[in-house]
Amino acid sequence: MNKLTLLNEILDHNKKFVEAHEYEKYETTKFPNKRMVILTCMDTRLLELLPKALNLGNGDAKLIKNAGALVSHPFGSIMRSILIAIYQLKAEEVLVIAHYDCGMSGLIAEPVIESMKARGISEETIDTLDYSGIDIKQWLHGFDNVTESVEQSVNIIKHHPLMPNGVPVHGLVIDPKTGKLDLIVDGYQA
Ligand SMILES: [Zn+2]
């Protein structure tokens, strides 16, 4: 889409949306009706499909998204968001929902770094980060196996030192075409 029109289209639509009071049918509170927090992927195919496939409407869940539905650091912003959802926003269960055919599956860092260079990031910048102890390749790396990745993220959440007892953490993988869920970790059994 033309760079000069995307934002303008959004703003035009937004004005009409608000003026027509279309927001009224979405009115709810910040506390999830279904008392859960979901971590899933930013994949475009899941934007509407995932809520529909799980029967979620506005207000039903706290939804956290990133590339790959990954908790890659126990003290990063994803884990912080999950803890805030539990302690401050009444979430009582956690669902990690990755998906098949994810862009982070088998992601190889080298072509991404090549793209960065092609877009003007200098070799020197890459080297400087490298010398500073930042392993960019490792940092960009997604996962090799979606099932193992979900199990790993569930484990990080489940065993986080700040997680209270008695919060089920479930792990699932969704089909980005049909919306079918495969259960990987049943948090009630764990
Ligand atoms: Zn994905």
From TrEMBL:
Family matches, as CDD domains: beta_CA_cladeD
Necessary cofactors: Zn(2+)
SUPFAM superfamilies recorded: beta-carbonic anhydrase, cab
Pfam families: Pro_CA (PF00484)
InterPro entries noted in UniProt: Carbonic_anhydrase (IPR001765), Carbonic_anhydrase_sf (IPR036874)
Protein's UniProt keywords contain Cell cycle: no
Class of enzymatic activity (EC top level): lyase
Catalytic activity: hydrogencarbonate + H(+) = CO2 + H2O
Co-factor: note: Binds 1 zinc ion per subunit.
Keyword Metal-binding annotated: yes
Binding-site list for Zn(2+): C41, D43, H99, C102
Single GO molecular function: zinc ion binding
EC number: 4.2.1.1
UniProt keywords, alphabetically: Metal-binding, Zinc
Family listed: Belongs to the beta-class carbonic anhydrase family.
This protein's name: carbonic anhydrase
